Amino acid sequence: MNLIIFGPQGSGKGTQADMLAEKFDLSHIETGQIFRDMGRGDTELGKIVKKFDDQKEMVPDDITVTTLQECLKKISIEKGVILDSAPRTIGQIDPVEKLMKADGRSIDKAIYIRLPYDESVARITKRYLCTVCLNHIVLGKHIQSQHDICPICGGLITQRGDDTPDGIAKRLKTFYEVTVPVISHYRDKGILIEVDGNRPMEAVFEDIIRQI
Predict the structure, then answer these.
(1) Where does residue 93 rank: exposed (0-12), middle (13-18), buried (19+ CB within 10 A)?
(2) Does residue 13 carry a catalytic annotation?
């Protein structure tokens, strides 16, 4: 089985992708995290990716497709994948589908986790990151104040630039203007699963499984 998962920031698509990967023994390919890891490196490509990240701009289609291609090369054809954050633009649809087809893979289902705009903002503004162990931390769940230290390693915590009010507004604008048309493509193909993400994660997961 090969899946694609979509959702606005804060929808929990990363968590759902992890849960689906575990249930169906899939490789979770999250291009956003891959780019963040690349940006911390000292390679020329890493510097280019970091520049786009710092400017809160999307990584160009050609870099996204090439990065995805390299990821797929490392995964056995017998093992399914779940693509998280690719394709993100209309221009990525055809090359991503060709990459999958070249590996003998078909996209069985695309999943869209819907979430109201205001709820996306509310969830994202609670996100923090440990500067030492890079653990993801949620205000109100793992810490009670933005001045607290990491509960895992005691390191200082910070908020990603993407998770500030300005960063959130730009990312959500991009999602609705650029990625929603991609979702419509898979709806038109008749393989889209749509679920309400404004519920406990267990309920969202059960809904996805039922529709798969």
Answers:
(1) middle
(2) yes
